[in-house]
TrEMBL record:
Residues 78-163 form the Gfo/Idh/MocA-like oxidoreductase N-terminal domain. Keywords: Glycosidase, Hydrolase. Residues 203-453 form the Gfo/Idh/MocA-like oxidoreductase bacterial type C-terminal domain. The keyword Hydrolase applies. It holds the Pfam family GFO_IDH_MocA. It comes from Rubripirellula amarantea. It comes from the Bacteria. This is Alpha-N-acetylgalactosaminidase. Its EC number is 3.2.1.49. InterPro entries: Gfo/Idh/MocA-like_OxRdtase_N, Gfo/Idh/MocA_oxidrdct_glycsds, Gfo/Idh/MocA_OxRdtase_bact_C, NAD(P)-bd_dom_sf, TAT_signal, TAT_signal_bac_arc. The lineage of its organism: Bacteria, Pseudomonadati, Planctomycetota, Planctomycetia, Pirellulales. GO terms for molecular function: alpha-N-acetylgalactosaminidase activity; nucleotide binding.
Length: 456
């Protein structure tokens, strides 16, 4: 992926346009990303800037120039524009409406870190506007949204990277884990357990005035129109500077209207790696069983009966029956990470460690040369954005493509549907629909609020 030739932005745009017009993906080619020469760098914009939006931007400034930011919160927008200028010495333009970013011809790609319920609309419209896309995980709010994104990627020929950065970063621990499995170090896989943490419910959260600078209607966007809610207690640490209990900044992950709780948050990371390791990235489970679960509010017909408290699961154990009848357990209990168990042994991996006897045995019996690179599909990048930019130049889809992401995320979406309805689901991974359950199939899509439909 790394070559000695330079690659100007003019070359980059010509290559991109030619490949898109032809409707094909070119073979892998490498570029020097011109870290010291601005005219050799692609031009990016970030849409949605709080927390993860700045994180992915900050990691990407070594590879790309940022010409614009968009955020519906004026305070967040101004803070991040200042941070970018302090870091790079360059000013970017700021917008409340992301569509003004998409209208600009000088922007090659957008990085999307808005809340999950906005991902599909912005992603689709960005691709139709001729932009490549890096979008945070989880990519979608529903399974049908994933199908739409796949259709538009194919239609436009755009490059699309999902922000499941465990595929690239974390000192390549997850790649080594998959290499261990492929090399037969634990024999045949018998069980995979994904620990993704539990969550907490909330007190009753009152409706209050919208904070100054926040366009609440646009923050809600495709989601139903509801009051802004918050309690005065403030969050500390990561996500600080916002209310601890709210239906907006940071805490939106606890509401099914905007996200999928821990199942779609940490699940989008660990279920992704587990599915990859099982070789199931082009299929999926046939059965999803909610072994146990706790919801923080009462539900009826799959919907919460109150609107003033968090409503995503706090505890759960889900069994997904994967190809070969291998059980994948998704649980809120135990350590955060993935436990692989096979006929010859087991090991555990997370962002901090790769541990177990098969790992210890590597000291005297290392993996074959190139085993990790074979998992990755070539020389391994150190940065997820670097892989994205390489893909933009080659017009080959990156390591976290939309098809494999959507396949694994279907497991997470189905788990949430099973919890909401309180029953086992039979899934047809070929037709991508729930078998014999019209009520459950109704949860595969959601209507957008009037005025916030996707512009196709």
């Amino acid at each position: 992926m790394t070559s000695k030739r330079t690659f100007s932005r003019r070359d980059f745009l010509q290559t991109t346009s030619a490949a898109t017009a032809a409707g094909v993906f070119m073979g892998t080619s490498a570029i020097t990303r011109g870290q010291d020469s601005p005219n050799e760098r692609p031009v990016f914009a970030t849409i949605g800037l709080r927390n993860q939006g700045w994180t992915i931007t900050n990691k990407s400034t070594q590879f790309a120039d940022f010409a614009a930011f968009a955020d519906v919160d004026a305070t967040v927008l101004e803070e991040n524009l200042k941070k970018l200028e302090e870091k790079t010495g360059k000013k970017a333009d700021g917008y409340k409406d992301y569509r003004e970013v998409l209208d600009r011809d000088d922007i090659d790609a957008v990085m999307i870190a808005a809340p999950d319920h906005w991902h599909t609309k912005i992603s689709v419209e960005a691709m139709l506007a001729g932009k490549d896309v890096y979008c945070e995980k989880p990519l979608t709010l529903t399974i049908d949204e994933g199908k739409l994104i796949e259709k538009v990627v194919k239609q436009t020929g755009r490059v699309f990277q999902v922000g499941t950065m465990q595929r690239t970063e974390c000192e390549h621990r997850f790649l080594k884990a998959i290499a261990l499995i492929r090399d037969g170090r634990i024999g045949d896989i018998r069980k995979v357990t994904c620990g993704i943490n539990g969550a907490t419910g909330s007190p009753v959260i009152p409706a209050i005035d919208v904070p100054e600078g926040l366009d609440w209607d646009m923050w809600l966007g495709p989601a139903p129109k509801v009051p802004y809610r918050a309690l005065p207690e403030m969050r500390e640490g990561y996500g600080g500077g916002v209310p601890l209990y709210t239906n907006c900044h940071y805490a939106w992950r606890n509401w099914y209207e905007y996200s999928g709780g821990q199942m779609n948050d940490w699940g989008a990371h660990h279920v992704d790696i587990a599915t990859w390791a099982l070789g199931a990235t082009d299929t999926g489970p046939n059965t999803i069983t909610p072994v146990s679960y706790s919801l923080p509010v009462d539900y009826k017909d799959g919907y919460p009966t109150v609107s003033d408290q968090y409503n995503s699961p706090t505890k759960f154990e889900i069994r997904a029956n994967m190809p070969g009848d291998i059980p994948m357990i998704i649980t809120s209990e135990g350590d955060n990470g993935i436990l692989f168990e096979g006929t010859k042994g087991r090991f555990f991996v997370n962002r901090g460690k790769l541990a177990g006897k098969p790992v210890e045995d590597l000291e005297n019996n290392p993996l074959p040369e190139g085993a990790v690179e074979e998992v990755y599909g070539g020389p391994v990048s150190q940065n997820h954005t670097e892989n994205f930019i390489d893909a933009m130049a080659s017009r080959k889809q990156p390591i976290s493509d939309v098809w494999t992401h959507n396949r694994m995320l279907e497991t997470c979406h189905l788990a949430n549907i099973a919890i909401r309805l309180g029953r086992e689901l039979k899934w047809d991974p070929t037709k991508r629909e729930i078998i014999g359950d019209d009520e459950a199939n109704a949860f595969l899509s959601r209507e957008s609020r009037d005025g916030y439909e996707i512009n196709m």
